[in-house]
Amino acid sequence: MQVCITCTFSESEDVGACISLATNSIGLDTLPSYLIERGDQSEWIKKTQESFHPLQIIKGVWVVPEWQTPPESDAINIILNPGLAFGTGQHPTTKLCLVQLHKVIKAGDCILDYGTGSGILAIASLKFGAASSVAVDIDPLAIASACQNAALNNIPPEKMQLLLVPSDNYNTKTHSANEALEHNSYCKDAVPERNKYDVVIANILLNPLLELAESIVSYAKPGAFIALSGVLIEQIPQIMERYSPFVDNMTVTQIEDYACITGTKIKDAHAA
Protein backbone atom coordinates (compact mmCIF):
# COMPACT_ATOMS: atom_id res chain seq x y z
CA MET A 1 0.00 0.00 0.00
CA GLN A 2 1.29 3.46 -0.93
CA VAL A 3 0.36 6.50 1.15
CA CYS A 4 0.68 10.01 -0.29
CA ILE A 5 0.73 13.07 2.00
CA THR A 6 0.41 16.69 0.90
CA CYS A 7 1.96 19.31 3.19
CA THR A 8 2.26 23.09 3.07
CA PHE A 9 5.46 24.92 4.05
CA SER A 10 6.51 28.56 4.07
CA GLU A 11 9.20 29.52 1.59
CA SER A 12 11.76 29.90 4.38
CA GLU A 13 11.30 26.35 5.72
CA ASP A 14 13.91 23.64 5.14
CA VAL A 15 11.55 21.04 3.67
CA GLY A 16 14.11 18.24 3.74
CA ALA A 17 14.80 18.79 7.43
CA CYS A 18 11.07 18.85 8.22
CA ILE A 19 10.47 15.59 6.37
CA SER A 20 13.46 13.99 8.08
CA LEU A 21 12.09 15.05 11.48
CA ALA A 22 8.62 13.68 10.65
CA THR A 23 10.15 10.43 9.40
CA ASN A 24 12.11 9.96 12.62
CA SER A 25 9.10 10.82 14.79
CA ILE A 26 7.12 7.86 13.46
CA GLY A 27 10.03 5.44 13.46
CA LEU A 28 10.65 5.06 9.71
CA ASP A 29 14.12 3.88 8.75
CA THR A 30 14.32 5.55 5.33
CA LEU A 31 13.41 9.00 4.06
CA PRO A 32 10.42 8.85 1.69
CA SER A 33 10.65 10.39 -1.77
CA TYR A 34 9.06 13.82 -2.11
CA LEU A 35 8.34 16.53 -4.66
CA ILE A 36 8.36 20.28 -3.93
CA GLU A 37 5.97 22.54 -5.86
CA ARG A 38 5.41 26.25 -5.39
CA GLY A 39 1.75 27.02 -4.70
CA ASP A 40 -0.49 30.03 -4.21
CA GLN A 41 -1.48 30.67 -0.57
CA SER A 42 -4.99 31.90 -1.38
CA GLU A 43 -5.68 28.74 -3.39
CA TRP A 44 -4.51 26.57 -0.49
CA ILE A 45 -6.81 28.44 1.91
CA LYS A 46 -9.75 27.99 -0.46
CA LYS A 47 -9.12 24.25 -0.80
CA THR A 48 -8.81 23.87 2.97
CA GLN A 49 -12.12 25.63 3.57
CA GLU A 50 -13.88 23.55 0.93
CA SER A 51 -12.73 20.31 2.59
CA PHE A 52 -13.68 21.28 6.16
CA HIS A 53 -17.38 20.88 6.99
CA PRO A 54 -19.34 20.78 10.28
CA LEU A 55 -18.65 17.46 11.99
CA GLN A 56 -20.82 15.83 14.64
CA ILE A 57 -18.61 14.19 17.27
CA ILE A 58 -21.48 12.75 19.30
CA LYS A 59 -25.10 13.79 19.68
CA GLY A 60 -25.18 17.44 20.69
CA VAL A 61 -21.48 18.13 20.05
CA TRP A 62 -20.25 19.64 16.78
CA VAL A 63 -16.96 20.97 15.42
CA VAL A 64 -17.85 23.81 13.06
CA PRO A 65 -15.52 25.77 10.75
CA GLU A 66 -15.54 29.50 11.37
CA TRP A 67 -16.93 30.23 7.92
CA GLN A 68 -20.00 27.97 8.26
CA THR A 69 -23.22 28.12 10.29
CA PRO A 70 -23.64 25.52 13.07
CA PRO A 71 -26.22 22.87 12.08
CA GLU A 72 -27.65 22.96 15.63
CA SER A 73 -27.55 26.36 17.28
CA ASP A 74 -28.34 24.93 20.73
CA ALA A 75 -25.66 22.21 20.59
CA ILE A 76 -22.13 22.44 22.00
CA ASN A 77 -20.47 24.02 18.97
CA ILE A 78 -16.68 24.19 18.89
CA ILE A 79 -15.87 26.88 16.33
CA LEU A 80 -12.57 26.35 14.58
CA ASN A 81 -10.21 27.89 12.09
CA PRO A 82 -7.42 25.32 12.13
CA GLY A 83 -4.85 27.43 10.30
CA LEU A 84 -1.57 25.52 10.16
CA ALA A 85 -2.16 23.48 13.32
CA PHE A 86 -3.33 19.88 13.79
CA GLY A 87 -6.80 19.32 15.19
CA THR A 88 -10.04 19.75 13.25
CA GLY A 89 -11.97 16.87 14.78
CA GLN A 90 -11.86 14.99 11.50
CA HIS A 91 -8.89 12.80 12.41
CA PRO A 92 -9.83 9.67 14.39
CA THR A 93 -7.46 10.47 17.27
CA THR A 94 -8.98 13.93 17.80
CA LYS A 95 -12.47 12.46 17.78
CA LEU A 96 -11.43 9.74 20.24
CA CYS A 97 -10.05 12.39 22.60
CA LEU A 98 -13.16 14.58 22.33
CA VAL A 99 -15.39 11.63 23.17
CA GLN A 100 -13.28 10.75 26.22
CA LEU A 101 -13.24 14.34 27.45
CA HIS A 102 -17.01 14.58 27.11
CA LYS A 103 -17.36 11.44 29.25
CA VAL A 104 -15.03 12.33 32.12
CA ILE A 105 -14.96 16.09 32.62
CA LYS A 106 -16.69 17.35 35.74
CA ALA A 107 -17.57 20.88 36.77
CA GLY A 108 -14.55 22.53 38.33
CA ASP A 109 -11.93 20.32 36.66
CA CYS A 110 -8.56 21.73 35.61
CA ILE A 111 -7.32 20.35 32.28
CA LEU A 112 -3.88 20.11 30.66
CA ASP A 113 -3.78 19.66 26.89
CA TYR A 114 -0.23 18.51 26.11
CA GLY A 115 0.53 19.26 22.44
CA THR A 116 -2.53 21.38 21.79
CA GLY A 117 -2.25 22.06 18.06
CA SER A 118 -5.34 24.08 17.10
CA GLY A 119 -6.45 24.18 20.76
CA ILE A 120 -9.53 22.08 20.03
CA LEU A 121 -9.23 19.80 23.09
CA ALA A 122 -8.53 22.62 25.54
CA ILE A 123 -11.47 24.62 24.16
CA ALA A 124 -13.79 21.60 24.14
CA SER A 125 -12.88 20.84 27.76
CA LEU A 126 -14.16 24.23 28.84
CA LYS A 127 -17.35 23.82 26.83
CA PHE A 128 -17.85 20.44 28.50
CA GLY A 129 -17.76 22.08 31.92
CA ALA A 130 -14.12 22.33 33.03
CA ALA A 131 -13.20 25.36 35.13
CA SER A 132 -9.90 26.02 33.37
CA SER A 133 -7.56 24.62 30.77
CA VAL A 134 -3.87 24.99 30.06
CA ALA A 135 -2.64 24.18 26.55
CA VAL A 136 1.03 23.68 25.69
CA ASP A 137 2.85 23.24 22.39
CA ILE A 138 6.35 23.51 20.97
CA ASP A 139 5.21 25.19 17.74
CA PRO A 140 4.50 28.95 17.75
CA LEU A 141 2.14 28.50 14.79
CA ALA A 142 0.05 26.07 16.85
CA ILE A 143 -0.09 28.49 19.77
CA ALA A 144 -1.10 31.32 17.42
CA SER A 145 -3.85 29.13 15.97
CA ALA A 146 -5.08 28.11 19.43
CA CYS A 147 -5.21 31.78 20.48
CA GLN A 148 -7.40 32.60 17.50
CA ASN A 149 -9.70 29.65 18.15
CA ALA A 150 -10.07 30.50 21.83
CA ALA A 151 -11.25 33.97 20.83
CA LEU A 152 -13.65 32.53 18.22
CA ASN A 153 -15.29 30.49 21.01
CA ASN A 154 -15.50 33.46 23.39
CA ILE A 155 -13.16 31.75 25.85
CA PRO A 156 -11.71 34.39 28.20
CA PRO A 157 -7.94 34.37 28.89
CA GLU A 158 -8.55 33.79 32.60
CA LYS A 159 -10.07 30.36 31.74
CA MET A 160 -7.56 29.22 29.11
CA GLN A 161 -3.79 29.69 29.15
CA LEU A 162 -1.47 28.91 26.25
CA LEU A 163 2.16 28.04 26.89
CA LEU A 164 4.89 27.87 24.26
CA VAL A 165 7.54 25.48 25.55
CA PRO A 166 11.15 25.32 24.29
CA SER A 167 12.14 22.64 21.81
CA ASP A 168 15.21 21.73 19.80
CA ASN A 169 12.96 21.40 16.75
CA TYR A 170 11.67 25.00 16.74
CA ASN A 171 13.48 28.29 17.18
CA THR A 172 10.92 29.96 19.39
CA LYS A 173 12.91 33.21 19.52
CA THR A 174 12.86 33.98 15.80
CA HIS A 175 9.77 32.19 14.48
CA SER A 176 7.50 34.59 12.54
CA ALA A 177 4.44 33.58 14.59
CA ASN A 178 5.96 35.12 17.71
CA GLU A 179 4.95 38.63 16.67
CA ALA A 180 1.31 37.61 17.01
CA LEU A 181 1.97 36.08 20.44
CA GLU A 182 3.99 38.83 22.14
CA HIS A 183 1.01 40.82 23.41
CA ASN A 184 -1.62 38.08 23.37
CA SER A 185 -3.48 37.80 26.67
CA TYR A 186 -3.90 34.02 26.31
CA CYS A 187 -0.15 33.41 26.21
CA LYS A 188 1.80 33.05 29.43
CA ASP A 189 5.52 32.85 30.03
CA ALA A 190 5.31 29.92 32.41
CA VAL A 191 5.50 26.14 32.66
CA PRO A 192 2.69 23.78 33.72
CA GLU A 193 2.56 22.94 37.42
CA ARG A 194 3.28 19.39 38.57
CA ASN A 195 0.59 17.34 40.32
CA LYS A 196 -2.07 19.94 39.54
CA TYR A 197 -4.44 18.74 36.81
CA ASP A 198 -7.59 16.64 37.10
CA VAL A 199 -7.31 15.59 33.45
CA VAL A 200 -4.16 15.37 31.32
CA ILE A 201 -4.58 14.61 27.64
CA ALA A 202 -1.81 14.17 25.06
CA ASN A 203 -2.78 13.61 21.44
CA ILE A 204 0.66 13.63 19.84
CA LEU A 205 2.78 10.82 18.32
CA LEU A 206 4.28 7.55 19.49
CA ASN A 207 7.89 8.65 19.99
CA PRO A 208 7.18 11.79 22.06
CA LEU A 209 4.59 9.85 24.07
CA LEU A 210 7.27 7.29 24.91
CA GLU A 211 10.10 9.78 25.49
CA LEU A 212 8.04 12.20 27.60
CA ALA A 213 5.99 9.71 29.60
CA GLU A 214 7.31 10.73 33.03
CA SER A 215 6.87 14.42 32.26
CA ILE A 216 3.32 14.04 30.90
CA VAL A 217 2.15 12.02 33.90
CA SER A 218 3.88 14.32 36.40
CA TYR A 219 1.43 17.14 35.68
CA ALA A 220 -1.56 15.02 36.76
CA LYS A 221 -2.87 14.85 40.30
CA PRO A 222 -2.77 11.42 41.96
CA GLY A 223 -5.88 9.63 40.71
CA ALA A 224 -6.29 12.03 37.76
CA PHE A 225 -7.63 10.89 34.39
CA ILE A 226 -5.00 10.51 31.68
CA ALA A 227 -5.66 10.07 27.95
CA LEU A 228 -2.95 9.26 25.40
CA SER A 229 -3.59 9.26 21.68
CA GLY A 230 -2.03 9.85 18.28
CA VAL A 231 -1.00 6.18 17.99
CA LEU A 232 -1.87 3.27 15.77
CA ILE A 233 -3.49 0.11 17.08
CA GLU A 234 -0.27 -1.89 16.71
CA GLN A 235 1.54 0.66 18.89
CA ILE A 236 -0.80 0.14 21.87
CA PRO A 237 1.46 -2.43 23.64
CA GLN A 238 4.39 0.01 23.62
CA ILE A 239 2.30 2.75 25.22
CA MET A 240 0.79 0.45 27.83
CA GLU A 241 4.16 -0.98 28.80
CA ARG A 242 5.76 2.47 29.03
CA TYR A 243 2.99 3.99 31.15
CA SER A 244 2.18 0.98 33.34
CA PRO A 245 4.44 2.18 36.23
CA PHE A 246 2.46 5.44 36.40
CA VAL A 247 -1.05 4.75 35.10
CA ASP A 248 -3.60 2.23 36.37
CA ASN A 249 -6.86 0.85 34.96
CA MET A 250 -5.75 1.36 31.37
CA THR A 251 -8.38 0.83 28.69
CA VAL A 252 -8.36 1.28 24.92
CA THR A 253 -10.86 2.81 22.52
CA GLN A 254 -10.31 2.87 18.81
CA ILE A 255 -11.59 4.27 15.54
CA GLU A 256 -10.34 2.72 12.31
CA ASP A 257 -6.58 2.09 12.77
CA TYR A 258 -6.10 4.57 15.63
CA ALA A 259 -6.32 4.23 19.38
CA CYS A 260 -6.74 6.22 22.58
CA ILE A 261 -5.40 4.74 25.83
CA THR A 262 -6.92 6.04 29.04
CA GLY A 263 -6.37 5.39 32.73
CA THR A 264 -5.80 7.01 36.11
CA LYS A 265 -2.55 8.17 37.65
CA ILE A 266 -1.33 5.79 40.32
CA LYS A 267 -1.42 7.65 43.63
CA ASP A 268 2.13 6.77 44.65
CA ALA A 269 3.63 7.10 41.13
CA HIS A 270 6.85 9.11 41.11
CA ALA A 271 6.92 10.41 37.53
CA ALA A 272 9.12 13.48 37.09
From TrEMBL:
GO terms for molecular function: protein-lysine N-methyltransferase activity. Keywords: Cytoplasm, Methyltransferase, S-adenosyl-L-methionine, Transferase. The keyword Transferase applies. It comes from the Eukaryota. GO terms for biological process: methylation. The keyword Transmembrane helix does not apply. One of its GO terms (cellular component) is chloroplast. Belongs to the methyltransferase superfamily. ETFBKMT family. This is ETFB lysine methyltransferase. It comes from Kalanchoe fedtschenkoi. The lineage of its organism: Eukaryota, Viridiplantae, Streptophyta, Embryophyta, Tracheophyta.
